[in-house]
Design a protein that fits this description.
alpha+beta
């Protein structure tokens, strides 16, 4: 699956990809959120292959530890955001990551994803987002 996603990202740079910008989707059959990031954000249709691989590997590692399904998309985010959890998608969280903002900080991509997934937990529990709690490992 990982290679398929990387190939899709690569194809988006010059060919047709079915879901450009998708870096990871948990393998649960017939489960994913109906939210499309392109409704509200600019999809990074041609992410840097190395950064995409780092993000996809980090997402797979996070998934393998907790087995909680989620999606990860490469997007071009507002200047003050490096990653975003999409409010209301807590049943199958959708996380967006701006890979270019992680250039030079590649080792922080996994931490950014995990941080946003903690906001999904807070959302599922009906709590306000707590940045300090989301930063805890």
């Amino acid at each position: 699956m990982f290679e398929d996603i990387l190939n899709a990202a690569e194809n988006a740079c010059g060919k047709t990809a079915s879901e450009p910008g998708l870096l990871f989707r948990a393998p649960e059959d017939n489960q994913h959120h109906d939210y499309q990031p392109s409704w509200d954000y600019e999809i990074d249709e041609c992410p840097d292959r190395k950064l995409a691989q780092i993000a996809s590997t980090a997402a797979q590692n996070i998934y393998s530890r907790g087995k909680e399904p989620f999606e990860l998309w490469a997007c071009k985010l507002e200047p003050d955001a490096v990653a975003i959890y999409i409010d209301g998608t807590c049943g199958y969280p959708v996380v967006l990551v701006d890979l270019e903002k992680h250039r030079g900080y590649e080792d922080q991509i996994g931490k950014s994803i995990a941080h946003e997934l903690k906001h999904a937990i807070q959302d599922a529990e009906g709590r306000d987002y707590d940045e300090d709690e989301a930063e805890d490992d």
